[in-house]
Design brief:
Blueprint lengths: L5 H5 L5 H23 L5 H18 L6 H8 L8 H19 L7 H11 L18 E4 L5 E5 L7 H17 L5 H15 L6 H15 L10 H7 L1 H12 L10 H26 L4 H9 L8 H7 L5 H13 L3 E6 L2 E6 L6
Length: 352
């Protein structure tokens, strides 16, 4: 039977990269608090965008998709899900909203995790919702030639309930007693959760929701304004590589969880950096054209209208479209059309 002791993790000597990431995250978190006090009303648009991106990206990682229009309608609760994918997207929205609004009163216990999992499937008839797995599951890779290979075998259904309770108890103990740095404890907990793989379905999405929940509870609110799920989706291969490296020897308690810790901390820090860039664009009162002009100066290579929308949450989509037209007309950017896709890039890059 797999046992868990987070006290042993605290005895490990961390390398300079891990310590540097932790220090940088605390610095950025402190700066974010100052920003929030200065312009809280301007940042509400970031919250709306992050929720949409988080829901869309976390589901897309698992192959659950719908159109941009439908995503927006589902997020605004202005439509009924039309199919299984949309039902799962609506469930993720519900859990994310609960976490945003009630993170401070949600305990890290198996019962709460099961309740959140049940809510994830609240728009569909799934008898396994809110229950730990009933059959053995596997983490496998499918290759271009159609073959599959098992990469990791999680715990058996029999071992799962006690293991889930154990990691919750260990996490609560080390956090409650200040025995372990939260930015170490959180990725360790999430890694163990993914190795246990407690559900028949929804483990990846639940792990990302729990990451957001645990970060909020420890005072790291960047996921409210910048989607961590979107960052993971953009670097999905790095996410899986770090997870696979850290799973080796897990059943014997010999796993090296450092690759996963570094990956998650790097993602969190990157989100904080994005927050700082986007805050800079809403801090000053600029015209729409000047706001968009500053936004494109942060982009390298091609970018879309949606990329600018994310950077300029205080502007309406029509204002962004108008600003882009003016910047194209004055030669500051180049408009490129390929099929149904429209992209832009800074004009000077043609001559670089």
């Amino acid at each position: 039977m797999r046992t868990f002791s987070y006290t042993k993790i605290n005895e490990q000597k961390w390398d300079s990269e891990v310590l540097g990431l932790i220090a940088a995250i605390y610095k950025e978190a402190g700066k974010q608090e100052l920003y929030l006090k200065q312009r809280p009303e301007k940042l509400e648009k970031l919250v709306e965008i992050a929720k949409v991106q988080s829901t869309e990206s976390s589901n897309a990682i698992e192959g659950i998709v719908t159109t941009n229009t439908r995503i927006k309608q589902i997020m605004e609760d202005k439509t009924t899900p039309r199919n299984r994918d949309e039902q799962e997207i609506a469930g993720y929205r519900d859990v994310l909203n609960i976490i945003h609004e009630n993170f401070d009163v949600i305990s890290i216990t198996p019962n709460y995790i099961l309740q959140l999992h049940k809510m994830l499937y609240g728009h569909m008839n799934n008898p396994a919702a809110g229950r730990t797995k009933s059959v053995q599951n596997y983490i496998s890779a499918t290759y271009p030639n159609g073959t599959t290979r098992i990469l990791f075998t999680p715990l058996s259904p029999f071992e799962t309930p006690s293991a889930l309770e154990s990691i919750c108890n260990e996490f609560n103990r080390v956090i409650g007693n200040n025995e372990l740095e939260p930015l170490i404890a959180i990725p360790v907990f999430i890694h163990d959760f993914l190795c246990i793989h407690p559900f028949n379905d929804g483990n990846g999405r639940m792990s990302r929701l729990l990451t957001t929940l645990l970060l909020y509870q420890s005072g790291f609110h960047v996921g409210k304004y910048i989607s961590l799920e979107a960052k993971i989706a953009k670097n999905k291969d790095l996410y899986y590589d770090a997870l696979n490296q850290s799973q080796i020897g897990w059943h014997d308690g010999q796993a090296d969880v450092v690759p996963f810790i570094k990956y998650l901390l790097g993602t969190i820090l990157s989100a904080y950096k994005d927050f700082e860039d986007r805050f800079a664009l809403v801090e000053e009162k600029l015209s729409a054209v000047e706001t968009v002009r500053r936004a494109i100066m942060t982009k390298i290579g091609r970018f879309s209208k949606q990329d600018i929308r994310e950077l300029c949450p205080s502007l309406s989509i029509s204002s962004i479209e108008g600003a882009l037209r003016k910047l194209v007309a004055e030669g500051a950017i180049v408009r490129e059309v390929k099929g149904n896709n429209i992209r832009y890039f800074r004009a000077k890059e043609i001559y670089d």
